[in-house]
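S.,

As promised, the protoporphyrin IX containing FE run. Input:
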Amino acid sequence: MIANYLGWARESPGTAAVTLLPLVPLTYLVYLVTVVILWPWLKALPSRKALGLIPGPKGYPLVGCVIDLIRTPIHQKMQQWVCEYGTIFRVDLPAASAIVVTHPEEVARIIKVERFDKFLQGYGSMEMLTSTTMPNILTVPMGPYYKALRKAVTPAFSTANLKLFYPTVLKLTHNVMDHIRGLGEGAAIDMDAAAQRLTIDVIGRFAFDRDFAATEFGRNEALETVADLMLGLQRMMNPINRWFWWTKESRALVATRRRFDSVVSRALADLRGKPPAPYCLMSHLLGVVDPRSGKVLSGEQLKAETALFWIAGFETTAHAIGWTLMFISTHPQVEEKIAAELEAVGLLAMPGAAAPREVEWGDLGGLRYLNSVIQEAMRLMPPASGGTARQASREVKLGGYTVPKGTMLWIPVYALQRSPHVWGPDAEEFKPERWTAATTGASEADEDEVVRSAGTMSARGWLPFSEGPRSCIGQSLAVLELRTSLAMLCGHFRFRLADEMGGCEATVQAARQHITLKPGDKGLLMHAIPRAP
Ligand code: HEM
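Predicted complex:
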């Protein structure tokens, strides 16, 4: 029979193929169960045994805790477990046991002192961005290529470069404000979607020196393609879709990747004819020499890198703007304090008064209260809520337990930043005041403050941008976008969460961790009431 199927039997091959056809899916299924579940499970047995003393939720045979993580939104499940099991516990996954670490000092030790590299098996879907599956700055191990890339692109996020780019951020935010004004205060506006239009245009300009024109608020190819891509990548996190490549979802992802690939390729091709603007990320990437080949990056490498920068920088920042506005719109006393701060420096629109002046670079560090509001919103709703995963490159002691070399160390940021063990009994409350003391380190004249602002907080348990050598390289740009857009929006409008959202808590509960921490199906509907009609 098998001989027939393999084509060794020459007689009546048609009949043989028909008879044996059902064997194909069956064989594939056996292959999958063996390769994807049984083999990794067997391989992980010694590490499971070594970690057996560390407490943690009880999983199911073979699949471990995966079922719990699918049933409840993953960020919420991790938060429940942190409350239940404390700052160090074990979670069994099919292929390995992970140690979940939310003790701030241990976290800082893992990512900043020991500098363990990423646990890269978890990053596979981020290599599926373009039609060529290729590692990128996020997914490549810490070797000579990574170091060359990081070194070359770091200057793009420096104070000097961001200052050159600042007028573009201002202009794009004005586009968004004009659109909001045009809709009128009766309209319920999805402010997360509006922020996505702003941040995709920012990335278009910053990465490719290209106008994606999303802030013109019409149908938009770049926005639609990337939204489909994010959905597709999210679906690929489910191993069923990844392994059953003939499903509708898998085929849709292949088509979307081609579309995205073509948007990125066109943007890169257009840059060949003219030198990119000096602030443009591309002018830094074009000079990178891959130490492995001694040559500048190939077209495919450039595509993989720019695609990653685009994806990493656009939705994250948009959600951070959206979630911050959501908290402001539901906390009137916070909004009043922001208004008072803006009024004091001439940035608040008021009825009967002259229009406020433009927000300047020098204002950004000085808006201390607004900056604490942003920091607190990013604590409660960190866009990269899943956090980061590291691999212990040697045996390490964590919370009194011995963790063997090779173990996955998972730092779930949403759970960490809401942990009562770290933040006390009011961990779940939105209290910007907890930051006002912490953000007073910089003076208004300190121009590097925008660039530095987000760093060095892991010891306190705040790390939405991660920290250490593999922290977010784009955080200075993200902070710039957040501060500028929120100062401008709050200076010209008061925001109220629309009734259909059901209030702050319901909106938080509806959030889903789909690569980033997104609002639920309704988006973030708000009314924007002009301060000076
Ligand atoms: C509020 C906005 C943002 C948040 C919350 C955020 C968060 C993060 C986090 C947590 C990481 C570490 C991921 C890990 O360990 O796996 C990261 C890495 C990264 N981010 Fe961001 N990010 C934001 C905006 C941006 C922007 C605007 C850009 C660029 C334009 C960017 C580019 C990157 C890149 C390239 C990496 C990989 C860095 C490396 O491994 O060396 N991000 N980001």
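The CA atoms of residues 5 and 17 lie 6 Å apart. Residues 118, 137-138, 150, 308-309, 312-313, 316-317, 320, 383-384, 388, 464-466, 470, 472-474, 477-478 surround protoporphyrin IX containing FE (CB under 6 Å).

- D.
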